[in-house]
Write a structure and sequence with these properties.
about 55% helix; 8 helices; about 0% strand
Length: about 150
């Protein structure tokens, strides 16, 4: 039973240690917010009277359309990789590992550091926690953070 739960949970942990279910891209939050922003703009006819300084309404429309269409939405890199050239994904696949936590070199891995460059504080703690405590305990921990309002991505 524990092994089956772990296997099911594994599909929502990125090769780099990110937890998909707490990610804005996985949860389609960005797409939904883009739809809402477009609705607000239309309600007050903002594009008719506000003249932006740093962007054009044409570019804003293109951007919102991309966001609404889910160009950045992700199902999980284990289910359907969104970033096909992810260096961590490619490395883990090449080494035939479950994830970075199974690699002895993860502490000094430049590929992993590059992927986590915007969240360096989480890099080592996420991968180290999975390595030490396992997938199920890691998910319990990170879901607690997320439910407590600490969205790390």
């Amino acid at each position: 039973m524990k092994e089956r739960k772990e296997k099911n949970n594994l599909q929502y942990i990125g090769y780099c240690g990110a937890y998909c279910r707490s990610c804005l891209f996985f949860n389609r939050i960005i797409s939904e917010e883009a739809k809402f922003l477009r609705y607000l703009i239309e309600c007050v006819h903002l594009n008719r009277w506000y003249k932006p300084y740093t962007f054009s309404w044409e570019n804003a429309e293109k951007f919102l359309k991309e966001m609404e269409e889910g160009r950045f939405n992700c199902k999980s890199c284990r289910i359907e990789p969104n970033w096909k050239e992810c260096p961590v994904h490619l490395c883990v696949k090449e080494k035939k590992l479950q994830g970075c936590w199974k690699c002895e070199d993860f502490h000094s891995c430049e590929k992993l550091k590059q992927v986590w460059k915007n969240h360096p504080d989480y890099l080592e703690s996420f991968v180290e926690t999975i390595k030490k405590k396992g997938i199920n305990e890691w998910i319990e921990y990170v879901e607690g953070l997320y439910k407590g309002g600490k969205d790390f991505l």
